[in-house]
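ok so dumb question maybe but i'm new to this and my supervisor (M.) told me to 'just get the structure for PLOD1-3-like GT domain-containing protein' and walked off. so i did the thing. is this what she meant?? sequence i used:
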Amino acid sequence: MRVITIATDLEHPFLRRLLEPSCAAAGLRLVVLEGTQKGFRPRDKRALLTEYLDRHVAPDELVMFTDAYDTLLLRGADHILDTYAGFPQRVVFSAESNCWPLGNVGLALHDSPPVRPYPYLNSGGFIGPAGDIVALSAKYPKPPSEHFPLLGRLRAHGVDPDRLHATSDQYHWMLVQLLEPDTVGLDHGAVLFENFAPAVANFCELSRWTSDFRANGRQAASYRRERTRLESRLQSPSGAAQVHFASALAKTVVLDLLDEGQLPSWLAGVLPR
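this is what came out, is it supposed to look like this??
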């Protein structure tokens, strides 16, 4: 098994100071693929990953993908393999409390009631045999939005979800998972992947918080709110193999806690002293 991430900035502090050391401490082989093309976007990760898997990884080898700038690994291969074996699906994605990026429209695409505590796909972590990931990417080279009448009705009114979310690989994989639930599962219970992003009812809140932080730095109300939230949440250890601080504010707080020597022991313990 190997862990794979994709980065355009190989010196990013979260990658260098958290993800890479945590993988080394857990005995995991981390492969960093560099996105070098101009204007590299999140959706380009899928093509780069698929090309690497097709050329360099045996179809039956298990691979775990993890985001580069806001994740770290807590547990080693034996734990990951044992936990993965408990899922009926061959490819398993992280899940989160927000239906990003479609928001309320995305909720309407789901036929079944939400499975708590993490109902919705998050593409910052997933695991499966290399051949299955390549096959899904080949079967769905573009977001399969034509299979969802609701998205067609939006286009008829001049709102094109494919254009609006063209840069999002999460949009793409969410639609694939809804079409392929027997092949692609979600980690609703955070046994492999835990997402620490704040739950929001209105996605406009996230952009307002980011704007507030950019304008006011660590004096911003949004920074103080997120720091308080994370400090409280991090008092309880995660049972997952990967933890994901999936917002600009969350990863800033974690890096600040690292600099201040304030990370809880269950996180700091996986990093070099």
